[in-house]
Amino acid sequence: xxxxxxxxxxxxxxxxxxxxxxxxxxxxxxxxxxxxxxxxxxxxxxxxxxxxxxxxxxxxxxxxxxxxxxxxxxxxxxxxxxxxxxxxxxxxxxxxxxxxxxxxxxxxxxxxxxxxxxxxxxxxxxxxxxxxxxxxxxxxxxxxxxxxxxxxxxxxxxxxxxxxxxxxxxxxxxxxxxxxxxxxxxxxxxxxxxxxxxxxxxxxxxxxxxxxxxxxxxxxxxxxxxxxxxxxxxxxxxxxxxxxx
Length: 245
Hints:
The chain is built from 8 helices and 12 strands. The protein is of the alpha/beta class. A 6-stranded mixed β-sheet has the order 2-1-3-5-6-4. Strands 9-8-7-10-11-12 form a 6-stranded parallel β-sheet, with helices on both faces. Helix 4 (101-113) crosses helix 5 (128-139) and helix 4 (101-113) runs antiparallel to helix 8 (228-242).
């Protein structure tokens, strides 16, 4: 049995197992299985990999950067981003690391923005997903500022984010887990009153489909997209990697 899966600390919110199970059934891949592996710490990964049937793993919060010390080779995107969300056990037993979040974010922004020229963006969060977001924004030549709880890692904290920066930054991306099921009543603390109908809000969270972050944007007339497009695109990119396509 070819085995694949997702590693992270808490996976109650994840749709990955359902997505791949449905994919395997649809494509009559009866020799494949996808499972969720909650790891209390990333040092538990080698024990999981003792199972020789595991060919590939996706990686989620909070291990996208920590996992890199177990990897033998990195793809170009993983090197540039500094984070990994896809592992492949190569034929010689070595581990390669990839970042398929990049493709998912590209597809999502193409769908959300179309041909609109964005002057500045706000990125909420500084974790592995945020690094992939920053990489794609740089590809698109969109300047951005970073907001987080840690002043040392960002341009602004949630406590000192100027209202005019929110008003002038027509693209706001939530790259944090805030608002993810079951914490569905939470949202990043930004001044939503300065969001306008010319704004775009992108939430990497896909469960729930409409987070508080997106709902606040919709109330202000903004165009929004959740993380479902990103989930599907990065999952399919992972599948191509695991099958050397």
